[in-house]
Specification:
Layout lengths: L1 H9 L2 H4 L5 H13 L8 H16 L2 H4 L5 H9 L7
């Protein structure tokens, strides 16, 4: 509904498709909360959305790629060791 409204009323068809990327964000957030495991969250998808928003809305393509550097940092912070501790 939001996609059609943004596209039809505001002619924002191009950036509105980013709304579909919020689906894995929603489900991974629920899973991460239920399992109390931040590593279950789809951080790379959120970073991709952020990068695309930076490019589409503010034309920060040249520097926006730096947000991808947060992916390994995120998983280093929230990684559990293989012993289950």
């Amino acid at each position: 509904t939001a996609f059609v409204l943004l596209g039809g009323l505001k002619n924002l068809w191009h950036p509105a498709w980013l709304l579909f990327l919020t689906i894995p964000i929603y489900y991974s957030l629920i899973s991460a909360i239920e399992k109390r495991s931040p590593e279950k969250f789809a951080w790379p998808v959120l970073v991709a959305i952020l990068y695309l928003c930076l490019g589409f809305f503010w034309s920060y393509w040249a520097w926006g790629w730096l947000v991808f550097l947060t992916i390994p940092i995120y998983y280093m912070i929230f990684a559990h060791d293989s012993k289950g501790e």
